[in-house]
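Supplementary Methods, section 5.1.

A reviewer requested that the exact input to the structure prediction be made available. We therefore reproduce it here, unchanged from the version used in the analyses.
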Amino acid sequence: MDQDLVVGAQHGDEQAFERLTAADHPRLFRVAYGILRDRQLAEDATQEAFIDIWRTIRRLRDPAKFEAWSYRLLVRRCYAEAKRRDSKAFDDAIASPDERSAPDDFSAVIDRDQLDRGFRRLSLEHRTVIVLRCLLDLPMDEVAEVLGVSPGTVGSRLSRALGSMRAAIEADARPPTLAVVQPEVVA
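The structure derived from this sequence is encoded token-by-token as follows.
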């Protein structure tokens, strides 16, 4: 990330902000999509985050921390979008929306489906910590900074989220049990 663009945007340079936005949109959209699991909600959250960034960029003290700061604003917008709308469209795969499975790779489709079903069962907070830590590979302290919590809380949320996801996947893998109906004895 070009810190000169951040500094330019902090001084009101609209062209610097446009270049910053163009460079950061894919990164922020991917995070929003990972959290919200809906393309339209993710796009809305990303656009609202950019508005927040423009309005508050002058308050950013250290341009080197722009990336973590922008994630923090985006996460807040994702939470607001999730609360504002009843989002039922969590049907895309965990991977980036641009990644698709090969049609003949049936086992990969099954694996992605299992992961997606497990991921959809997580709370918004748990999805967020998995996206930031596992998808973006941010260090724990940076995830903590983005979320405004301690690194210990991040570790706890991540552990619970992965455990919940593992349990959901294992539960889906178990074969359904059939109830045995005993015939009534007529006397």
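Residues 1-89 form a domain with the Rna Polymerase Sigma Factor; Chain: A fold (CATH 1.10.1740.10). These observations are discussed further in the main text.
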